[in-house]
Write a structure and sequence with these properties.
191 residues, single chain, elongated, two-stranded antiparallel ribbon, alpha+beta
Length: 191
Amino acid sequence: VLAIPLTVRGRVLAVLGLGRRGDAPPFTKDDREIAEEIAGRAALAVDNALLLAEERAAARRLALLQRATAELSAATTPLEVAEVAGGHVRALTGPDSRVAVYEVDPSHRALSALAIDGGSPAGRELWRTLPMSTPVVATTAVNERRPIWVEDVAAQPLANRGLAPELAASARDFGLAAVAALPLTVAGRVV
């Protein structure tokens, strides 16, 4: 058995493994040298492929940001802004996600949905208005004026604690596994 690490710039990217059956002749010095040369070339090819993939991903992100910027610049109402922002985030997160854009009501007592995409119509209606006292990431992000990221909803000790039963059921039925809330702030004020 031979195992040759595919290394570029001191970083192991993969491994090339070779094996022979028991009745086959052992690997020779020449076998090893050729295998190591192939492994070195394969390492460079893997590195180039990874760099190309990173470059393409960066180009896609930049194109998405350019489209979003152009569409957000053309939006003339809060509803249009919400639909554009929500649409771009949903395109990024995929069809199995739920994206909502809320605005803080003038009294700062509730969040009112401008746009909700994903989930059932009944579920969207339940989440249309959230009193600021509702224990969810959206209200927490607004109250604390910072992004909130929860990678594993089930691991949160406070998950659904104090949440109205119908909201808890809606979240459970949708199958939320991770959530994030990013407050939209202008001049230090959440809008």
